[in-house]
User: Fold this.
Amino acid sequence: MELYHRIQIQDVVRLDHAALDAVEAGFRALGQGRVVQPPILSMAIEESNGEVDVKTAHIRGHDRFAIKVSPGFFDNPSLGLPSLNGLMIVFSAKTGLVEAVLFDEGYLTDIRTALAGAIAAKHLSRHDSRRATVIGAGVQAELQIAALKLVRDIDTVDVWARDTDRANAYAERIRERFEGLTVNVHGDMASACREADVIITTTPSKSPLLDAGHLPAGVHVTAMGSDSPEKRELEVSVMTCADVFVADTRAQSESNGELKAWAGKTMPFEVQELGPVIASGQSPRTGHDQITVCDLTGTGVQDTAIASFALKRLVA
Assistant:
């Protein structure tokens, strides 16, 4: 058994096309029915404003599977510590023996989450998308743009966040990272979204932020902030006005994602899943002005895919 630390993992796993292909292959296998993926195990640690999630999946025919333990303790920044942490344990799918522990401190989760956003945009957004709006100004807001640029020729980014200082700092980081990219900070969400081809919500909001009135014709929305029962980013009007609604998994969206808004009610729209969309090889978007929405809650198959990819590079 080998133990690898974040600095080693960062050296071999980046936001690139190879990593994107690995995560996309995991989703494709899920859509083909080749994945064993149990429900998320979640535990709240309320007295410390913390939570712990455990995710796993096995892709049939693959040599390895991973179990990810992901703590989130959201008062940590006041202590000078990161909010998110964690590790991935990689097992042999033939013997069950531990092959490696990837003490990535949440890095691989950040990478696979950003790549899932890019994969959603690849299959659901217009091919001529050039302008992206980001709601939020944290780490994932930055990574989502970096990943999106792998699949779309983004030349303009609009950003809105509740904290204007953080939004301005985010804009400076993005300008420095991507030479020639235009980045605009907006004082309200409506103006930030007005000309968007792609909108990405990246917040831990507990009440909806984005509504149908913010959506221009032809836009694609990736909502990736709602990943637990108490979080919401989308008003129900966003889902009812969408021509296409896709979830990474319907079950997780109903418990942790945006579909929990319909608990106990009949949904007036069809719900598709990202895996079958990818496996089909055909985008459900059929018109330039259609609105598409994808709800990403984070799946165990993404963790197994990125952990296996990382270990292959580490031992190469």
Observations:
- DSSP finds ten helices and 15 strands in the chain.
